[in-house]
Amino acid sequence: MNINIRGDKIEVTDSIKKYVGEKLERLNKYFEDASKVDAHIIIRARNGEQIIEVTVPTSRYTLRAEEKHSDLYAAIDLVVDVLERQIRKNKTRLNKRRDAADVVFSFIPEEDEEYVETNQIVKRKNVENKPMNEEEAILQMELLDHDFFLYNDVDQGCFAVIYKRKDGNYGIIYSK
Q1: Labelling 135: which of 99, 114, 124, 141 has CA 20 to 30 A away?
Q2: Cα–Cα dist 91/33, whole Å
Q3: What is the pTM for the complete model shown?
Q4: d(CA 34, CA 27)
Q5: 89: containing domain
């Protein structure tokens, strides 16, 4: 795996690079040719916490995880565990997309009870989408106590999703 590490307000030392490399080697077994896979890592320090963000783009999907911890090495351990769990949990869905051909699952037992797929659609909802602006959408989202809200953006003339970010701010995704 080709690793690209960048520090944001933190110096990335050789020992950090070595530790990240050793930990990310655990993911190599999931890829047919790990030498063709890139991993982009950003390490930040904010408010006494060490934050590591790992993005692994492949030909058909992108793995991404972000973890925070007061100890950088613990955060690295956590983020690699999350990435491995994502691959194992979504094994069935990824196998259906064999045209991707990046991932190999032959060594993961089918009856691995820890990773039995339990995610399924249990509710469908039709919503009335009246045109509104961003402020109205934020108000509606807060009134419903949701983390996101789909609305018809009157200013952009398209559907949009407004969501609450981890930092407490808001983000918007437009569909054009």
Answers
A1: 124
A2: 18
A3: 0.62
A4: 8
A5: 2-115
In a 3-state reduction of DSSP, which class is residue 171? strand
Strands (E), 1-102: 2-8, 38-46, 49-57, 62-69
153 CB neighbour count, 10 Å cutoff: 21
Residue type, 91: K
What tokens does 153 get?
Answer: 């953006």
Same domain, 137 and 95: no
How many Å apart are CA 136 and CA 150, to the nearest integer? 12
Q: Residue type for 168, please?
A: G
- Residue range 31-45, pLDDT digits in tens: 888 888 899 999 999
3-state helix, strand, coil in the chain (%, to 5): 35, 30, 35
SS3 156: coil
